[in-house]
Each structure stands twice: as C-alpha cells, then as structure tokens.
C-alpha cells in the first residue's frame, strides 16, 4: 500500500520507456523536473526523438546523452535543477539543458560549464538541434515509426493535457511570464485531437493543465465565445474519460463550468473538482501580491458553486510569510480557511525568486515566523481535511485504480488528483484489479488525508 508512489512523481521523473535497443541506435536519457506542464514538454521532446530513430534510455549509463528539463520557479527549484544537472554530468558527461531555468543560460553554465547546450522553455526545435549536434540520428526507416500515442512519462491510464502556454498575470512573486511569455492558447481543434488520441490509446483521465486554465482562448482576437474554456470543457467531457481541471482562476465565468461538473460521473465527463490558486485571503496581502483582493466575494462564489454542485471538491495553494504579512493578516487567512472549508490544501513558505518584484518589498518575514505560520496553517488544513473525509464514511464512490501491490490497490476518487491529493485504498478483493479500472466502493474508514473502502 503506497500513498502517492514516488516513482510517479510529476516533479521528478526519469523516462522509463520499455523498448529493445537495435544495433547502432543512438539513445537519449531524460530527467524532467518541475510542474506537469514541464512534464508534457518532456513527453513531446521524447516523442519527436523516437520518431527520428532515437532510443530512450532508462538510465544514465545506457544513454549517449541526457536531457535535463529544469524548473526555475523558486530558488530552491533552481538549486534542485543544478543538482540534477551535476548528477547527470557525473554519471554520463554529455548533458543538454532545457526548460524554465534555461531562460538563464549564464546561471547554468556558470555552475556547469561542461553542459553541451542550454535552451529555454518549450523550445522544442532548439532542443532537437542540440541533440542532433551531440548525437547524430541514425534512423532505420523500416523499424523506427512514430508511436501512435507518443511517449508518456505518466501511467498509461491518465495523461496531462496542456491547453496553453504563458500567463497574462503580473503577480509580484512569480516570474513565469518572464520565462514562458504571455498567454498563448492552443487551438480548440488541436486540443481535442490530442485528447481523442489519448482516449483511444487507453487514457481514462485527462488532467487539463496550463498556467491559467480559466483564461484559455481569451488571447484569440476573433473568438466567438467570451469564455472558450467552457466550450472546451464541454467537448472534452464527451470523450468518455474523466476530465479534471487544474489551475483555474476564479473568474466570474467559472460558474458556467459548475453545471458540467454536476453532470460528470463514472461514464466520463468534467469532474466535480476545481484546483484554484487562491494564495491568500487578506486583501492587503493580496494587493501586495498584485492579485485580485476579493476574498469575501470568493466565499460567496464558493457557496454558489457548492449550491449548484454539492459534491464539488476544491483544492488550492497558499503562501505564508509573504513580505509584510502581519500576524493579523495571517489570522485572517486562518479564519477564511475555516469558512471556506476547502477539501485539499497545499501551503508554501514564501521565498525570494531572482527577478521577482516581491524581492524588493519591505518587511520580509523572518524564517522562524514563516515556519511557525506554516505549521499552524497545516494544522488547521489537516483538521478540516480529517473532518471532511470522516463525513465520507458510508458513502458509495467511484474510484480509479492507480497501482496494485501485494497488500492493497491504491486508488483515487473523483476528488483526488494524482500525486497531490489523497488516496483511497482497497485492501480486500483487489487482486483482479488493474491500473485504470474504475470501480465502485463503499468508504469504511477515513484518516487525515486518505480513505479506505470495500468493493461493491
């Protein structure tokens, strides 16, 4: 029984593609760091390489070169990226760097001057050019074919579906727009074609991701709909797979998505799940973040969403210890959390990021105060989670199977995204289950973050 299996973490993935290397075939390894959006970039790069005749190596030793797809969102993520590059250099020696940290090539080459090349985020052609230079392709036209479903770094039964790049927000703590640019939405038809191919290949759950999912399509000058995400979600919901929406900003048109969620079920559709990055609740803190300062109205929106879709699960992330955050502001956040009763919550201690405008703000919070507030926040969030999960005991729920081990099947309900939310465990009568199965259970036990259930 394993909660959030570490080998499936989307923020630290090494490509593990089962295939037999042919004689003379050049091979490439991949380390993918950061968010699921970067993971999608890694999958696209590997798919292109496979189509050109390259093999994918599951380890450093078997690769002719290694690509490290980096994260540069936080200073701690930058340090992890540099560490991964150093490890790849030590183990293999031939390393190509791409991803968000690649937007700062001097930062990378200053620490690791022996890397072969550095490219920025979603610069697929430049990565391929670097690979071609380091390891020339040697395709066999009779053997090397583009795999119908591409190369996936996630389990076969779920897949991330990236619908846009970039972001038009100017949050002071974030440098994503500097690294990935302004919002650039993929065409509706292109997203649907990819989704259809994924479902045809056996994907049972589509995890819709972007930097700002609610804003999808608003960069199109000739758009017919005011909120294209609503039409996209509706169309995705017809494919017979679970559709889970991530990174949804609480714009007014989000309420148009709620009826679609109320209709979702085990036969597929838009799940009753919203991942919304609220970040804080005190209006002064939100203003210093350069985010909408309307926490009270947000509570009204949450109440309206739940009235239309009582089974709705809400997940969010928050920052504590933001520059200038007073004890009173933090207490407001705790009180807001009490009222909002969010189902799934993550919390981060603020840290400076090179290039972020928040670095220059006055009154930075001491580390020991950040730690204290993080602990108090998580204590509150844990108590809410424990109470909400206890209320599910006795309920019948549809779950999707992620992993089957000797002692139990690890599953997720419609309210749980992979790797970041809780699990539901079936520890009796699970032997015939396989990853991707969707079955009905009755919840018979609850913990702080996870559930246990029996099959019906």
From TrEMBL:
**Lineage of origin:** Bacteria, Pseudomonadati, Pseudomonadota, Alphaproteobacteria, Rhodobacterales
* Recorded family membership: Belongs to the methylthiotransferase family. RimO subfamily.
Task: Please verify whether the record's keywords include Ribosomal protein.
Answer: yes
Specify the protein name: Ribosomal protein uS12 methylthiotransferase RimO
Please share the entry's free-text remark on the cofactor.
Answer: Binds 2 [4Fe-4S] clusters. One cluster is coordinated with 3 cysteines and an exchangeable S-adenosyl-L-methionine.
Q: Which reaction does it catalyse?
A: L-aspartate(89)-[ribosomal protein uS12]-hydrogen + (sulfur carrier)-SH + AH2 + 2 S-adenosyl-L-methionine = 3-methylsulfanyl-L-aspartate(89)-[ribosomal protein uS12]-hydrogen + (sulfur carrier)-H + 5'-deoxyadenosine + L-methionine + A + S-adenosyl-L-homocysteine + 2 H(+)
Q: Which domain of life is it from?
A: Bacteria
Domain named MTTase N-terminal: which ranges?
Answer: 26-136
Give the EC number(s) under which this enzyme is classified. 2.8.4.4
Query: Top-level EC class, please?
Result: transferase
Chain's role:
Catalyzes the methylthiolation of an aspartic acid residue of ribosomal protein uS12.
Q: Which organism is it from?
A: Psychromarinibacter sediminicola
Q: Which Gene3D superfamilies match?
A: Methylthiotransferase, N-terminal domain, Nucleic acid-binding proteins, tm_1862 like domain
